[in-house]
Amino acid sequence: MKPRVLIADDHTLVAEGIERLLERECDLCGRVADGRALVQAVERDKPDIALVDIALPLLNGLDACRQIKKAAPEVKLLVLTMHGEQYFVTEAFRAGVSGYVLKQSVAEELLFAVKEVLKGRMYVSPSVAENLVEQALHPSAEPLSTETAAHDGLSVRQREVLQLIAEGQSAKEIASTLNVSIKTVEFHKTRIMKQLGVHSTAELTKHAIAIGLIVMPQQPTVPESRV
Questions:
Q1: Local structure of residue 11 (DSSP, 8 states)
Q2: What's the pTM?
Q3: At which residues is 4-aspartylphosphate found (predicted)?
């Protein structure tokens, strides 16, 4: 039987390119464009593996992976991303993923990576692995701000609220997304600002970027089909 694959990417052309790469050897059971839809689709459809972009709206890919591993630990997770920085790689594997593939290498690596992960093995793009080794041998003199910010002690719900604030949602929109009251959203925002020692939405957005809740946009790369 072909493995059942779920794709989570908010760039339609990229997702379609990934589908073309896998359609001959996999059963494509769905495609979603945000992290909340990803969690729901995994719980509903129970794919063998989910391919997850880190920079997903509403709920970033890493936090979505953390939720999936709690709700459906048997589902394999493989990250597809433009970002090869050490922080994102480390946080991805801490979140429970089994594979990490750079989008610029998808055409050459994706199918092999999917097969490796489904066999219970780990897979990391060679260029990412080389970069991690280089950083281990020659660590930066200055620690990454993301590594420092990652230990700010925010709760899961606070991280969700912070991401939605950084994405520009109003308190009313956040309340609807999280199914809570506007008063609860405002309470969380006040607590987050106090905890982080910031005083504006712009500073909250900067912090959200620093800890990877939202990622600075890059030009998406459409994987080429081998057909």
A1: -
A2: 0.81
A3: 53
